[in-house]
């Protein structure tokens, strides 16, 4: 299959590229490196040094017959995007290429606007380029479980049958997103559903939970050359990765608010398997299909406690502290998101275990001297002060 | 009350400004005249010549003690917007300032992107400027009934109580918008709901039907100086206005598709009353309130037949023809939008009658020589050809 991976330099994009190349697919990566710029704005470095994309691809291609191609460019540049589409003619597009940080989108007006402009317009350009060049392509769009918020009813997969006043219809699940970033994904999904409906395009929208983990089979082959960026900071860091970094620094694990908020999550290796399952099972033309992509869910307190008890097995004595929540969100809530679609298509979830956490702790330990404790603090408050507007 | 009217030069913005000034409010208009640019792109002129905003305001202010102020500028220019907000400190903001044409948004990629960029970013800038300058202001945002599409259940006012698997929640009504323009309004509403939820702002979102009509009490005082732009074209024209123009030209009334599609509509004078009712009954802080703003709904065929039978009373013998639908939409559908909120707050609807249509026909007759029959044709097809992408 010819697979175009947009955002193919990222935490998930790069491992996805290697994984799907290894399965014999023809892979073409596009990235604009916006994440590098944002890292610099906040003085962030990922924990491990990573090779440049150019180096990684060169080394990868020297070691395997399953070559990876790439072009540097931006979805906001329609001429560029269209050129790639015309040249590569993909069967499948995996779209990771969005500003991915909720805190960044809440930092101030400029960054909220950038997030929605970048994500919504990049995605619109993609829809028009698909319509023009390859209307039968299978678009796999990365969304997030956070788009749904925490409604008081079960969270279905993208669509819900509503019975109302004696009639019924299947409609998009009403969402209650928690940041301007999450909102940008909701806008994208609405635009894509429309394009499927009127232009007969097809899409799988993956509403993904929080991803944890460092290695994949391909990264394990040559960690120094192939590792992916690992963030533990307040902008790009995901929660389990940050807790592990705090533990290794012998710092308290900082839980936002009461910690009774629940999050769906999954192992990075399951992200790759979920995306692969989507590629192998395309929806029919005209279908806007949504999968909720997570394998487990827990409260923040439960996650912190699991990291702490895992650490205890190898001599760490950390504790959890609940700090003022920088986000504005419901802390006590019902939570029951469904994830049956990917399971029914064959996903065999890796469960988060002490063993898995200990494995990650040991990786982080190797790079302990790189850890910057300043980055553990919440970088952004949802309730802006006037200066930041 | 100090009322800021964004988009105060438009078909509805200008009559709203005069109407609310006459009620003793202090009015400040902002407009960027983007509609004039778009008119030129399609060779469109409104039926009646209108004075410039500068002339209209000057004449208005010379005749009344209820003065109107204005500034020319763009919501995309945050410094400008913020300056107006700091200077005027409104109690209420009426936000009409968006690219308002569904066909325009479907013309090609560039215009789809412009529509979403302009509307979403302008509205985001407004939310941040409100948060900074006047977090207690009452934002009245113009949306459209077309955001809902045509679900197979009753259309509630913005929110719906969903019972699902034995639990229930009140969530945003799931929408199925019919163009990139309608989608931009859905995105706006989602962004505003979030801002109300986390920043305690307050908003009334008016999901308005198709507006018809030419005159208001204020316009009637001095039609040549105070009339508002009347469009009958395929970009900005609304359906009843276009049917009347076709009748006056002795042309067939062109109905898109089967004509069984239903639309909610209202008289321009009722738009003013609805907006006034909203200004006088603000929601509480933190509330995102939605009113469906229409007084009647009919199928396109019924509307065409009413215009034809009205014309017959004064000697016209028009007929209706059903042409290929340039839009992609359901033509046969259930339709039951609710509009009880504005009625319960005291709206006394003007009903569309033969008398009202004949009044409008006579206005259009006076300017018959200005009518450009080329503009009756649908300007844009929803199913783009490759050239336009």
Determine the CATH superfamily of chain A.
NAD(P)-binding Rossmann-like Domain
Computed structural class of chain A: alpha/beta
Strand content of chain A: 15-25%
CATH architecture of chain A: 3-Layer(aba) Sandwich
Percent of residues of chain A in helical segments?
25-40%
Could you give the order of strands across the largest sheet of chain A?
A: 3-2-1-4-5-8-12
Say what the CATH topology of chain A is.
Rossmann fold
Average pLDDT taken over every residue of chain A = 96
Largest sheet of chain A: 7 strands, parallel
State the shape of chain A: globular
Distance between the termini of chain A: 46 Å
Oligomer: homodimer
Low-pLDDT runs of 5+ residues of chain A are: none
What's the tally of helices of chain A?
14
Q: What's the CATH C level of chain A?
A: Alpha Beta
Give me the strand/helix succession of chain A: EHEHHEHEHHEEEHEEHHHEEHEEHEHH
Number of domains of chain A: 1
How big is the Rg of chain A?
20 Å
Number of strands of chain A: 14
Specify which chain pair forms the largest interface: A-B, 53 and 53 residues
Which key terms come to mind for this protein?
homodimer, 389 residues, alpha/beta, Rossmann fold, seven-stranded parallel sheet, three-stranded mixed sheet, 14 helices, 14 strands, 39% helix, globular
Overview of this protein structure:
The structure is a homodimer of 389-residue chains. Chain A has 389 residues and is α/β, with parallel strands linked by helices. Chain A has a single domain (2-231, 265-295, 335-350), classed as Rossmann fold, CATH 3.40.50.720. Chain A is built from 14 helices and 14 strands. Chain A has helices at residues 13-22, 34-41, 53-63, 78-88, 102-105, 109-133, 180-199, 217-221, 223-226, 239-248, 268-280, 300-312, 340-344, 354-366, and strands spanning 2-6, 26-31, 68-72, 92-95, 138-144, 159-164, 167-172, 202-208, 210-212, 253-256, 262-267, 288-293, 296-299, 320-323. In chain A, the strands form 4 sheets. A 7-stranded parallel sheet of chain A has the order 3-2-1-4-5-8-12, sandwiched between helices. The first copy, chain A, has a 3-stranded mixed sheet with strand order 9-11-13. In chain A, strands 6-7 form a two-stranded antiparallel sheet. In chain A, helix 1 (13-22) crosses helix 11 (268-280), helix 10 crosses helix 14 (354-366) and helix 12 crosses helix 14 (354-366). The longest helix of chain A has 25 residues, at 109-133. At the A-B interface, helix 6, strand 6, strand 7 and helix 7 of A face helix 6, strand 6, strand 7 and helix 7 of B.
């Amino acid at each position: 299959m010819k697979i175009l991976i947009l955002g193919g330099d990222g935490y998930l994009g790069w491992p996805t590229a290697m994984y799907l190349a290894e399965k014999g697919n023809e892979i073409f990566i596009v990235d604009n490196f916006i994440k590098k710029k944002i890292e610099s704005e906040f003085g962030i470095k990922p924990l491990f040094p990573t090779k440049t994309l150019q180096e990684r691809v060169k080394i990868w291609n020297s070691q395997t017959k399953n070559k990876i191609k790439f072009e540097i460019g931006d979805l906001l540049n329609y001429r560029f995007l269209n050129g790639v589409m015309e040249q590569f003619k993909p069967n499948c597009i995996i779209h990771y290429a969005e500003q991915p940080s909720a805190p960044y989108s809440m930092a101030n007006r400029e960054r909220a606007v950038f997030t929605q402009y970048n994500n919504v317009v990049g995605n619109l350009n993609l829809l028009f380029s698909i319509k023009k060049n390859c209307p039968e392509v299978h678009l796999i769009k990365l969304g997030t479980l956070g788009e749904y918020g925490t409604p008081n009813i079960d969270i279905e997969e993208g669509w819900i049958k509503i019975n109302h006043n004696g009639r019924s219809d299947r409609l998009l699940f009403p969402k209650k997103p928690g940041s301007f970033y999450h909102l940008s994904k909701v806008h994208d999904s609405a635009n894509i559903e429309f394009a499927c409906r009127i232009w007969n395009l097809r899409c799988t929208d993956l509403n993904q939970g929080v991803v944890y983990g460092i290695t994949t089979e391909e990264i394990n082959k040559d960690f120094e050359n192939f590792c992916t960026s690992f963030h533990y900071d307040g902008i790009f860091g995901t929660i389990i990765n940050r807790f592990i970094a705090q533990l290794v620094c012998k710092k308290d694990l900082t839980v936002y608010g009461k910690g009774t908020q629940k999050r769906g999550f999954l192992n990075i290796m399951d992200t790759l398997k979920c995306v692969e399952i989507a590629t192998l099972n395309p929806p029919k033309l005209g279908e806007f299909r949504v999968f909720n992509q997570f394998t487990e869910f827990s409260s923040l307190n439960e996650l912190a406690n699991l990291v702490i008890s895992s650490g205890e097995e190898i001599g760490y004595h950390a504790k959890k502290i609940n700090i003022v929540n920088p986000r504005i969100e419901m802390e006590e809530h019902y939570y029951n998101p469904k994830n049956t679609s990917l399971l029914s298509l064959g996903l065999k979830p890796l469960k988060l275990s002490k063993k898995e956490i200990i494995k990650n702790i040991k990786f982080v330990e190797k790079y302990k001297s790189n850890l910057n404790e300043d980055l553990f603090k919440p970088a952004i408050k949802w309730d802006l002060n006037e200066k930041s507007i």
